[in-house]
Amino acid sequence: MCIRDSPIHSDLVDCVYREWESFFQSEKKHDYLFDPIKQDGYFPTGIENAKGYPIKDHKEFYHFYPWGRCPSSLRQELQAYFELASALASELLDWIQQHTPDDISGGYSESLSDMIVDSRETLLRVLHYPHLTGHEPTGALRAAAHEDINLLTILPSSNQSV
Fold first, then answer.
1. Can you give the pLDDT at residue 137?
2. How buried is 140 (Cβ within 10 angstroms: 0-12 exposed, 13-18 middle, 19+ buried)?
């Protein structure tokens, strides 16, 4: 589904892209190497691969949780984006629940939108796909075909052509 005129203004999306592009280009990213227990922070390339695909994805990313670590110079815009995306997700979850057959929605222990309220598990993943150099392993992809494990994934428009 494509959403037009979302509450997440393109200026904020552009700002987040610019700020995080600089972060991923800097060596400072290594100061925020992911915590294997909390799963917050910076994940370098070669960490993740799609289920059933043997080669690691050629991407790096940052897991942002409001309670987690984040460079202070990047937190304000990212937090604003997180809050707007969470509000949009809540609205979409209400819509999904309204259009779910009763025999399924009757089994929900709480409303779908309530499940994300103050959830410590809702995260914002900032992705960066480094330029290909030609030295990647044969068959390497930035992100192999995959399914997301979450009920809902919201992606902003890309800032690069394919």
1. 78
2. middle
